[in-house]
Specification:
alpha+beta, Nucleoside Triphosphate Pyrophosphohydrolase, six-stranded mixed beta sheet, 4 helices, 15 strands, globular, binds zinc ion
Length: 250
């Protein structure tokens, strides 16, 4: 059955997998998005009226972080982002003409004016801030109904360095100044198309003052008295483990 392709089939950020979280194998269609790594892996959207095959279910891709390896999750993340990009670029943003899928590159090409649209990622900084040798800043997002405390994060603005974004977001969201900003690691995060850039920094000055539309609470917590924190598989989890237990960043 070598003519079958392994398929990432999405429906509203949910992915079709079997009971063991394995992908289905399907016959390739002309409209499928093909991964450049070979033609045996494709991605497509499940149609509104298409039935879910027996033995399969739709799982939110966030949940697959815990089930899959990092490499598997990253490929799924790439698939969902490329599909979304293709869906959102059916017309030329320069002249308005209908676009065509480039035959070999990930590009949507305008046959009228030649303009090419490529997939974009949104750089987003996330920062773990420590104070002294045993305190960490954790903040509760105002939109989060639960009790989970996370890290300070935000989009990089036009014309800004990553370090400037870290300092600005921290000052805006919790009113403090940080020093010794250092890059740790990165993670593609397909919600919807972010590249999370992880930094660590140390508290320098200022009192915590919340930006209330964004943050409902923020405190320096002792390492041994943490509240509920982000789940394993997220970069925030790895960052907290890194500063508290000196674990290596993935
Ligand atoms: Zn055009």
């Amino acid at each position: 059955m070598s003519n079958l392709s392994l398929a990432y089939i999405f429906y509203n950020h949910k992915l079709l997998v079997d009971d063991n979280f394995q992908l289905p194998k399907v016959e390739k269609l002309a409209s499928d998005l093909i991964f450049s790594s070979g033609d045996q892996v494709i991605a497509r959207d499940l149609l509104d009226d298409e039935a879910i095959p027996e033995g399969y279910q739709l799982i939110p891709i966030r949940q697959l972080i815990a089930q899959w390896t990092r490499a598997q999750f990253e490929q799924a993340s790439r698939a969902v982002q490329l599909l979304e990009w293709r869906r959102n670029h059916k017309f030329c943003s320069h002249c308005g003409h209908e676009t065509e899928v480039h035959s070999t590159e990930y590009a949507m090409v305008c046959p009228a004016c030649g303009y090419r649209q490529y997939p974009r990622v949104q750089p987003c900084v996330i920062t773990v801030i420590t104070k002294g040798t045993d305190e960490i800043l954790l903040a509760k997002n105002a939109r989060n109904k639960g009790n989970m405390y996370g890290l300070i994060a935000g989009f990089v603005e036009v014309g800004e360095t990553l370090e400037e974004a870290v300092a600005r977001e921290t000052l805006e969201e919790v009113g403090i100044n940080v020093k010794n900003i250092q890059y740790l690691s990165s993670q593609p995060w397909p919600f919807p198309s972010n590249l999370m850039l992880a930094f660590k920094a140390e508290y320098e000055s200022g009192e915590i003052k919340l930006q209330e539309e964004e943050i409902s609470d923020a405190q320096f917590f002792k390492f041994d008295q943490l509240p509920e924190t982000p789940f394993a598989g997220s970069i925030a989890h790895a960052m907290i483990e890194h500063v508290i237990h000196n674990k290596k960043m993935p």
